[in-house]
Design goal:
two-stranded antiparallel ribbon, homodimer, Dehydroquinate synthase-like, alpha domain
């Protein structure tokens, strides 16, 4: 039941292997680690759950092995933790052929990916995402980052993994709230690119919520395919790739203004997607029927569809820092029906302000 | 008298413009900055000397402008300064189309280049190197880096500038010791790649030392051409590019063990080049005549040709951290005559230890 999505990026292409029971299987590590040094970096909780299994599976392949455990939480995506990782790699004797393995959710993927991007100007890394969000989002596209005190993900690099292992069994221990947060991104792929996939989600949401393995595998696979297709067209996010950020400009502002961690990323994206869809509706680009379907599916997935109450100037300042902006102009992704979206730099200020003021 | 070397790296190709009086001339900035935001980052001393001229020249082109001054010194190549730069960029409203300009020596080029590589996952930058070392070395190849407490340049990225402006007039205010340090790298290019250029240096060293503009322009141009040719063949330093590190494994160890700053980088490279040449001679790969010519030219340039007295275990630990190493093995570049060099992973331990023990 293992299936593979190949992300096509020339000499930076890599496979995403999806299925149950991958982590414990030596054959998924051997081609990448043969005779090389390997450093597993895992978040504390995930290390306890899956660390021993991964270790047993990878140790036969590599020449030397180190495990580094990072405390749980978004706060670890910072210079201090990155500097500590680099220090441990240097002290241990890691070199340019050493492979880093990131075992955990999006925080670990972003942090270890950026550590790999910047250690000795770039070493290989393998992602082993253990949340639905990381499996459908950060596993494709090579975005790595840490946070700056002034904003999320503002410091980072594009650095592709050499392989991704998405083990669906890791989702069995994922809290409901985090499963729902991952579904926000899955639903997003349907909205921006694939109306049939959106309709499939409407029909199969219950199976996803009860963690049916086949339904999850399909949803992860289709999400990765859509993201891989968009990223292959625009690796460095100069154009089309920005569509993947539907709901994210609003979402990042929510995360930033409520203090990172209060809202999960996927929860903020869900509320942000409804805001973007409402804006698109008011601008005459999205029917009220489609706005209703989007809102309903997110709500049925257990996600918030209304933003917290925040002051207008807070919204505008936080959104003004978004990486997609150019020349001081706020850039927003808006759905155009279900299955298509567009990049907008010309949203009327009063329409946006009315929306953010709850009017 | 302005001349241009083009570094060919596909869609990351860029020009190096070399000559007197470039900094004050708006036409060298206009093609790159037109309508974009520009942030000039300069080291304190250089900012005082050249900042106003650069500012006057670039301001007509850009839409908005900010100058950031960084204190002098290698100590600035650290997370703390990088984080401060990123913070100032964010607070000012820099976006993905903002261009950073690095005005100063190698420290500023490495630091600002890495800031550009990691800000919002990569923005454009222009190098304006004001030391001979930076003009002949860091202006080609896209290496950017900061230091880690455990070693020099261990954290960084490959990130090519969009243009380099090497103004030979900036060398008029360069201290003699720093001019000599730059010559160490110029001499290196002759040793590893071009015996005729080496012979030209032997004949024209006096002109370089008295800062004859035509001689300097030729030396910078030829150095950049050689480096560009090697880098174009091996952008990510998987093979041939390592030749550029002749003398650097020893040199980095000297800089690290004496405390960064006591020896200038070029001085450490000069002593390291003599060590590598001596080793090559003892291994039967370099004639005593060629060893003599290399040592003499470096000495006549005013450079140290003997390392400081350091304990053997210190040497070996510091050299064991070099980025070129693979699988725990020390990698050295050794000259094979004048005009050619090779990568060596098989230097006999006792030969190396005898050399480092001063025997």
């Amino acid at each position: 039941m293992t299936s593979t999505v190949r992300v096509e990026l020339g000499d930076r292409s890599y496979p995403i292997v999806i299925g149950p029971g991958l982590l414990d299987s030596p054959r998924h590590y051997e081609p990448w680690l043969r005779g090389r040094q390997a450093v597993l970096v895992a978040s504390a909780t995930v290390s306890g759950l899956h660390g021993p299994g991964v270790e047993r599976a990878l140790q036969p392949s590599c020449s030397r092995y180190l495990r580094i455990v990072v405390p749980d939480g978004e706060a670890q995506k910072c210079w201090e933790t990155l500097d500590r990782l680099h220090g441990e790699l240097i002290a241990w004797g890691a070199d340019r052929r050493t492979v880093l393995l990131a075992l955990g959710g999006g925080v670990i993927g972003d942090l270890v990916g950026f550590a790999a991007a910047t250690f000795q100007r770039g070493v290989d890394f393998i992602q082993i995402p253990t949340t639905l969000l990381a499996q459908v989002d950060s596993s494709v596209g090579g975005k790595t980052a840490i946070n700056h005190a002034l904003g999320k993900n503002l410091i980072g690099a594009f650095h592709q993994p050499i392989a991704v292992l998405s083990d669906t069994e890791t989702l069995n221990t994922l809290p409901d709230r985090e499963l729902a947060a991952g579904l926000a991104e899955v639903i997003k792929y349907g909205i921006i690119h694939d109306s049939a996939f959106f309709a499939w989600m409407e029909a199969h949401l219950h199976e996803l919520l009860r963690r049916d393995a086949a339904a999850l595998t399909f949803a992860i696979r289709r999400s990765c395919e859509i993201k891989a297709e968009i990223v292959a067209q625009d690796e460095r996010e100069h154009g089309r790739r920005a569509l993947l950020n539907l709901g994210h400009t609003f979402g990042h502002a929510i995360e930033s203004l409520t203090g990172y961690g209060a809202w999960l990323h996927g929860e903020a994206v869900a509320a942000g997607t409804v805001l973007a869809s409402t804006l698109a509706h008011r601008m005459g680009r999205l029917s009220s029927d489609d706005l209703g379907r989007i809102t309903r599916l997110l709500e049925q997935a257990g996600l918030p569809v209304r933003p917290p109450s925040l002051p207008l100037d807070g919204w505008l300042t936080a959104m003004g820092r978004d990486k997609k902006n150019e020349g001081g102009r706020i850039t927003l992704i808006l759905p155009e029906g279900i299955g298509a979206a567009s990049v907008n730099r010309e949203v009327p200020a009063n329409t946006l302000e009315a929306l953010l003021s709850g009017r």
